[in-house]
Amino acid sequence: MTDVREVLTRVHREEWARVVATLARRIGDLDVAEEMTAEAFAAAVERWTADGVPPNPGAWLTTTAYRRAVDRIRRESRREEKHREALMLADTPEPLGVIDDDRLRLIFTCCHPALAVEARVALTLRLVGGLTVPEIARAYLVQEAAMSRRITRAKTKIKAAGIPYRVPSRDDLPARITGVLAVLYLIFNEGYLTSDPAKEAVRADLTGEAIRLTRLVRTLLPDDHEVTGLLALMLLTEARRPARVSATGELVVLAEQDRSAWDRDLIAEGHALVRACIATGRPPGRYQILAAINAVHTDARDARDTDWSQVAALYDHLVRVDPSPIVRLNRAVAVAELDGPQVALAEVEGLPLDGYHAYHATRAELLRRMGRGGEAREAYDRAIELAGNSAETAYLRRRRDQLGGW
Fold it and tell me: In sequence order, what DSSP letters do the residues of 198-235 get, joined into one string?
């Protein structure tokens, strides 16, 4: 049983989005696609334990899910027309659009402009990223029940509005891209530092899938520099993944990472993309600026060589584009390096981020540098309470315990 569950965990990471996307295309119903995919995985626990893991787990899951979907449609007479359409779709080739990729088409379906931006992102994280509702809720800093309702409403809206399951025409792409990029970035971030303590700290399957899909989107929109910026940002961040978690399972912060372990090929590609964006002479968007910040970090062979004045200047620009509290929090880290922890703390205090673990972790580090050990300990405790990742929790506990008798 243990071996089968381990295989299922891996297959779920690799195949969930593909099965949901294939089913959604064939039957045209996101609710049924998701439910039958979940049923297929549940059936696999029993069948694979008794009969062994099939040679092609993805194909087995897709076939099982599709058969269950057809059986369900047959049982519901009010969906008789949908049943006939599903059977026809199973045997009739359909136009593939600009790019033949079911998961990319599913993303564009979930990111239709008829849906609120928050709903687009949440729904796609669930169906394409395979994230649980609690994971998505943590990413949005909202309650699980509220996120569950948001996802349900989005699926209902897609069904009621008859939103097509396809990659839109090239003329329609620009209006759809904002939500798509937000989704891809959140999927990547969930993989780069998982929010669920029960899962591995870093999920290369999610970061890899986000990069793959972003490359496809760039093929669709080669002149959209925010797409290029997002791809550069992902590559420069992914390049640091081998040094992100220690052998003991503890998060390794940027300043302490073994930079010789970074992927220099990804860094070179990311830098080239950043330079290409700069060469256009156009005002950069959020992802381009974030990519440029990461280019500065990855250009330094040693943390002490980091050009913090350039990082701070880029964050100043980013604040004008995206004046969110989280951007201001990240800017304060650069300010601390330039102007000292007192100045940075003054900018951090009062930000509306009490439910965000990184806010308290940042305060803890600033207070620590100022010699205010008791307050730093309290901030570490709050950060540990809110952190969802085991690697990050281990790091925060070590930093707190190093305070000793302060």
Answer: TS-S--HHHHHHHHHHHHHHHHH-TT-HHHHHHHHHHH
Burial 18-34, CB ≥16 within 10 A → b, else e: bbbbbbbbbbbbbebbb
Query: Is residue 226 within 8 Å of residue 287, measured between CB atoms?
Result: yes
pTM: 0.81
Greatest mean pLDDT among 35-49, 180-194, 335-349? 335-349
Give the span between the Cα atoms of 216 and 224, in whole angstroms.
Answer: 13
| pLDDT confidence of residue 91 | 42
Count of positions (residues) in the chain: 406
What is the second-level CATH architecture of the domain 1-94?
A: Orthogonal Bundle (1.10)
Domain limits, the chain: 1-94, 98-163+171-221, 223-290
- Reported as a single tens digit per residue, the pLDDT across 8-67 is 888 887 888 889 989 988 888 888 899 999 999 999 988 998 888 999 999 999 999 999
Helix, strand counts (H, E) of the chain = 19, 0
